[in-house]
Design goal:
Layout (H helix, E strand, L loop, with lengths): L13 H10 L4 H39 L1 H6 L6 H5 L8 H17 L4 H4 L4 H7 L8 H10 L2 H11 L20
Helix pairs in contact: 2-5, 5-7
């Protein structure tokens, strides 16, 4: 579904109704201050989520590589999937593998810190992790920190031999994925 055709949620409820009631009483200057405070709060929360996600990748990788999950489950034949599937964890296996891969390639193998990579979307770090090497990591890191997501995806497609000219929807306003 193209993003342009998606309906915006209304977010109606007790908390947002209270917020809007207060918002309507604010002066334009107060609304500006509140808007910037909300923006900063969102950025701070987003940073915490990304750093926490990468930290989970590190911890999960250590549990995997050490076999600690077998001790934790009390079963020498236990699998990492079984460990993640426990009722007290219920960790998404595919997402965990992706995050573990990102941490392993970008931090463990290439030496980047969480501060270096936390602003880059996990999805892009994961997609590029299949192409990044010790020889080209600086080029990829520069691309990930300076190019738009669309340009990075175009670059990734070019690495796979798919050129932008071959893409049927390159001039549309919707966001679609070339394969």
């Amino acid at each position: 579904t193209p993003i342009s055709s998606m309906k915006s949620p209304t977010y109606k409820g007790k908390i947002t109704n209270k917020f809007l009631k207060e918002w309507k009483t604010l002066s334009e200057k107060e609304k500006g201050k509140t808007a910037f405070a909300l923006d900063q709060s969102l950025k701070d929360k987003h940073r915490l989520i990304r750093v926490s996600t990468l930290e989970r990748g590190e911890v999960a990788a250590k549990i995997a590589v050490s076999g600690a999950y077998k001790i934790l489950m009390g079963d020498e034949d236990a699998t990492m999937l079984a460990y993640f599937s426990q009722p007290e964890l219920k960790i998404n296996w595919r997402h965990s593998l992706r995050v573990m891969r990102v941490w392993n390639v970008w931090c463990n193998q290439l030496g980047y810190t969480l501060d270096d990579i936390h602003e880059i979307p996990i999805e892009l770090l994961e997609k590029t992790s299949y192409h990044v090497t010790s020889e080209n990591h600086k080029e990829w890191f520069k691309a990930l920190t300076s190019l738009s997501t669309e340009d990075i995806l175009i670059y990734l497609n070019e690495q796979k031999g798919i050129k932008q000219e071959d893409c049927d929807h390159k001039n549309t306003k919707s966001v679609e994925k070339c394969t």
